[in-house]
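Appendix B. Worked example

We walk through a single record from start to finish. Start with the input: the chain for CUB and zona pellucida-like domain-containing protein 1, Sciurus carolinensis, length 564.
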Amino acid sequence: MADTHKALILKLNADENCTWTIYRPENKSIRSIFSHVQLDPDGRCESENIQVFDGPSTNGPLLGKICSENDYVPVFESSSNTLTFQILTDSARIQRNVFIFYYFFSYDTSIPGCGGYLGALEGSFTSPNYPKPHPELAYCVWHIQVDQGYRIKLNFKEIFLEVDAHCRFDFIAVYDGSSTNSGLIGKVCGRGAPTFESSSDSLTVVLSTDYANSYRGFSASYASIYTESVNTTSLTCASDKMRVIINKSYLASFGYDENNLQLNDPTCRPKVSNVVEFAIPLDECGTVKRVEDHSITYTNIITFTASPTSAVITRQKHLQIVVKCEMEHNSTVEIMYITEDDVIQNQIALGKYNTSMALFESNLFENPILESPYYVDLNQTLFVQVSLHTSDPNLVVFLDTCRASPTSDFASPTYDLIRSGCSRDETCEVYPLSGHHGRFQFNAFKFLRSLSSVYLQCKVLICDSDDPQSRCSQGCVSRRKRDISSYKWKADSILGPIRLKRDRSASGNSELLHRTHADETQSQPFDGLHLFSFGVLALNAVIVATIAVKRFVNQGTNYKYQRL
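Next comes the structure step. The output line below is what the pipeline stores for this chain.
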């Protein structure tokens, strides 16, 4: 089939095994949409299905399998100008119907306003050209993602598409999640104004059109609904912001609403849905940072501005919410107290400091390596960066300890690369302080008597850059000048596995080599000379092992690696 676009209406019987290949000479990709699939509802997916392959035959990569229980509208896109699909049916004597629409397209061309990412708590979007007729051969995907703890309510103000009982030609599909595989909430066409609600903080909306009968399309808006129970107020702290949720009914009990609230910086306004939310950056909106006695705290104040009854008196209670985040060991402690005249309410919660570790291609630290596991050569230079994800520009990351282990649980043996800020390996080079990044490089090695995997773990300290007496400012100390156990802002990062390149090629042949060696051994006669030789070898092995164990005990864990 070589048409630029075509609709296939397939009526299938029992025991079918049919294969179709779609192709076109020009270099374009194929999008195939199975907008209506009616297979045996009692059939098993193994015996009745539609399989779609990327290429000119069923030997190409499998793009997906369609069964009767699929809860989505299957759409497949080829990587080249050919696509193949195969339909199998079982022995049940029922009628099956499949509607397939396909067309050729180019990834280089796009339709303005066709899809996008919506990240605000509320918003609106329309089909391309709305209220004019929508474009032909359009496949638009909108991803809606709101903050954690919210659901999404989607309201279509108008839908005007081609009418069809099964919505085979032009349709809107709404999915309960972040992708088109998340579970179909609804599929609509024709005219209407339906409403949908997600079960989580993400929703996906798809518009698919064919080559004929274009109408106005649609107009939609969405709003967020906070789902977690908040009787009065709640606070969570992250590496970049403080998040305060205030119940509207709690405000109403004092005669206030969201218009009466302001932070230290009154230009920072809250988001309003069924609750009032302040997302307060750690370095903006009047947030005050305080550093004392190995502790960093961030504080802001939500003030309720009352409308006075007169210039002299007011009958509304004076209310303040003092929001305070204090950094603690490998986490943040969140403290919020509310002053209501002379009444103070305290709330405490826990959070995590957000750090990550990655390998990079060079000492420019521009392109992170995404492979996992990462295969390297012995003695290859590796570039490592630990990053702190925070909005506070005055924090620095200090690499206190970095060690390697052949296992992810960092049980013995381990090998120190950095200890107390000092390089402990002859090839390890620690870079100067660089804001939110701690960096070092070393040459790859492997552990003796262990698998060739190596994991890295770094313990970092996070200090205020304006504090000349902080541990970060001291750098390497051979003898610890200050006990860091009292430092509250600490975090761990783990990276791995890193493996030798030769292990990737050898792993597939290890079983073959083992079997060949065993077969050769069995073919040799086991005479007295072999027995004597075996005894001598065994005695030598015991002697060598004894010496190695003694040396191993004396040297500890600092030399259990092999350098090229």
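Two observations about the output. The mean pLDDT is 78. The helical segments are 248-253, 471-474, 501-507, 510-523, 528-555.
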